[in-house]
Amino acid sequence: MRTIDLAGTPVPVIGQGTWRMGEDSARRTAEVAALQLGIDEGMTLIDTAEMYGEGGAEEVVGEAIQGRRDQVFLVSKVYPHNASKTGVPRACEASLKRLGTDHIDLYLLHWRGQYPLAETVDAFERLRDAGKIGRWGVSNFDVSDLQELASPACATNQVLYNIEQRGIEFDLLPWWQQHNLPLMAYCPIAQGGDLLSSPTLKQIARRHEATPAQVALAWVLRQDRVIAIPKAVSPEHVRLNAAAARLVLDEHDLDAIDRVFGAPIRKHPLAMV
Q: Where do the domains of the chain lie, and which CATH numbers do they carry?
């Protein structure tokens, strides 16, 4: 699979998301197996957070990577209400325990909260000095947030981006790309639903002998330095997600998508889920 540099490490352009994992014990075996299959398929970046399943997703990830930690680039996130000088190290230690590892490759502030950014960054840097994390970054930050942060040490920004939610193309994505930094796109297939029923996506998918979800992923990856992190539990969907990295949309495909899901012509509030 094609890779790009993230926090000084080559990572696949398609990773694995874990939102809504760890919430139902009856699904745990399938969730663990899906992540392990994803690693086998080359999706060695796994994204999680202490918020997902209130730690349950991190436990699922920990089980999935047992004995395979050196094969995985691990991303997790801290709650904003834990993003203080004392809260960050405490939250990180809890995540490390659930993940069954001694370090997190990339640790993100999940979204802005009540604590000053300087306090959170200082706590991140202390974790980095202690070897608990490799690098740090942010999630759900708009341009004004990034300008206030103004830190060259920030490795990525993880935001909502898909065919239905293109607001970041107006200013955030160009600003980020000008700084030559990778962006992580969550919900790249818009949680399925109506998007995958789009006649336009279905037509493009038929032309490429692909699925609408693969078309949605390929569309996100048409941008330089973007990493998509879809979530999948069924083995079929895991394999299809991995295969989407090989799909390249042509100008006719992109024009057809633009006609239905137009690019933004003005600034929009940053979308989040």
A: 3-260 (3.20.20.100)
